[in-house]
Amino acid sequence: MMSGFYSYQEKTGMKRKAPRSPQGSITQRPATQLDPLPKGYPQFLEDIKSRIRNAQIKAALAVNSELIGLYWHIGKSIVERQRAEGWGKSVVEHLAADLQREFPGVGGFSRQNVWYMRAFYLAWTEQATNLQRVVGDLDGQNLPRVVGEIPWGQNLELLAKLKDPIQRLWYAQKIIEHGWSRPMLVLQIESGLYESQGKAVTNFKRTLPPPQSDLAQQALKDPYAFDFLTLADDAREREIEKGLLDHIQRFLLELGVGFAFVGRQVHLEVEGEDFYIDLLLYHLRLRCYVVIELKNRPFKPEYAGKMNFYLSAVDDQLRHEDDQPSIGMILCKSHKKLIAEYALRDTHKPIGVSAFKLTKALPEKLKGTLPTIRELEEELAKTKKK
Fold first, then answer.
1. Whole-angstrom distance, CA of residue 355 vs CA of residue 252
2. Mean pLDDT throughout 217-245?
3. Domain ranges of the chain
4. 41, 147, 197, 206: which has the fewest Cβ within 10 Å?
5. What percent of the chain has pLDDT over 90?
6. How far, in Å, CA of 73 to CA of 203, rounded?
7. Which pLDDT belongs to residue 289?
8. What is the pLDDT of residue 371?
9. Which of 62-66, 124-128, 339-343, 367-371 is predicted least confidently?
10. What would the pLDDT profile of 178-198 be if each residue is shown by its tens digit?
11. How far apart are alpha carbons 327 and 200 in whole angstroms?
12. How far, in whole angstroms, is CA 179 from its chain's centroid?
């Protein structure tokens, strides 16, 4: 009936009349005649959308927390029964099979995963018992709150790759802070982030206000591992720069959260003379430029003076009035801590000194075991003659 009604309208050219209010005025108006939106509406809309997203995230976290709590309880129950009643491996095997039959289509109850639940419980109880005084969140009885907030896959990586519960807890907190995926977590563990973050030699406490100095210190590592570059030890700085830009994503990942690339060999003109910054980045959380100088040689005190000059020029020519003071990062092949500290002690600009490691083009243990180009050519020539 409705389709016939509309076809009749189309045939006759009739139009439906807009509904009228009791006073006879038309209640619907063309969009062009609608009242303009209030001035604060865009911000209001963004606030509502933000609240919805936060609610979605909280709901997902609540579900994840319940799941992790369930796995913890299952692991605890298995351990307690094994200790009290001497249950063996076969009971765990039967438990996994029975759970899969009872909850078909529900993942997480495989034989291997049930064993992981047992290991998960033990990792945060027995291994944490001796560290109660060091970390209050590890009491040897309850699951640390932050661990219950991260996905099961990340928890398994923490168990597999880290034996120290303090390190596991530190990485768990970083997962929450930065939203690391499972591959990202593995990358950060294998690069030794726990051992290197915040270890650079700096003068930040003296040259930056307390909140900014602490954040800046944690933003720098020592050493950096550029293991995605296959360069010889004596590679030139320009070769390293090019290699880093060819692998810019890996480079920024190694630097850490918050770094954004601005430019390479950035030109600065000071009183008619030209100067070039090796790498210029911007740190989104620190709200400042980060000037990087690459030196594929040990640190020398004069590098600090040159960096101090660059930072003055960047602050004068590039820094916006809303930006924080620019930070300098001198990346060297190596550095001696006391020499670096002396060089930075009386500088007025915030500077950090870190080492970096490259992957050699060919490991030393393989040299001499592989044929040279000439040997390969000779062998190919022999093959052609045959």
1. 16
2. 78
3. 57-190, 198-364
4. 41
5. 29
6. 48
7. 95
8. 45
9. 367-371
10. 888 888 888 888 888 888 888
11. 13
12. 7
Report yes or no: 353 and 332 within 8 Å, Cβ to Cβ. Answer: yes
pLDDT at 28: 52
Please give the distance of CA 337 from its chain centroid, rounded to a whole number: 28
The number of angstroms, rounded, from the C-alpha of 158 to the middle of its chain's C-alpha atoms is: 16
Structure tokens at 69: 């709590």
The token pair at 347 is 């500088």
Which among 288, 156, 141, 317 has a CA at the least distance from the CA of 216? 288
* Pairing label, strands 273-283, 288-298: antiparallel
**DSSP 8-class letter at 260:** E
Q: State whether residue 196 is helix, strand or coil.
A: helix
- Around Cβ 318, how many Cβ atoms within 10 Å? 17
Give the containing element (helix H, strand E) for 312: helix 302-317
Pairing outcome for strands 327-334 and 288-298: parallel
Dihedral in degrees, nearest 10, Cα atoms 268, 271, 273, 278: -20
Strands 224-230 and 351-359: parallel
Mean pLDDT rounded to a whole number for the chain: 78
Question: What are the residues whose beta carbons fall under 8 Å from the beta carbon of 319, sequence distance 6 or more?
Answer: 288, 289, 325, 326
Residue 380 has pLDDT above 60, yes or no: no
Instruction: Report the distance separating Cα 261 and Cα 253, nearest Å.
Output: 11
DSSP bridge pairs for 369: none
Fold of the domain built from segment(s) 198-364: Trna Endonuclease; Chain: A, domain 1 (3.40.1350)
Q: Tens of pLDDT along 79-111?
A: 888 888 887 788 888 888 888 888 776 678 888
Q: Are strands 327-334 and 351-359 parallel, antiparallel or unpaired?
A: parallel
Q: Is 15 exposed, middle or buried (0-12, 13-18, 19+ CB in 10 A)?
A: exposed
The DSSP line for 91-103 is: HHHHHHHHHHHHS
Strand extents, DSSP E, the chain: 201-202, 224-230, 259-270, 273-283, 288-298, 327-334, 351-359
Share of the chain above pLDDT 70, in %: 73
Prediction pTM value: 0.59
CA distance 301 to 308: 12
Cα–Cα distance between 276 and 271 in angstroms, integer?
14
Residues whose CB is less than 8 angstroms from the CB of residue 28 and which lie 6 or more positions away in sequence, other chains included = 18, 19
Coil vs helix vs strand at 50: helix
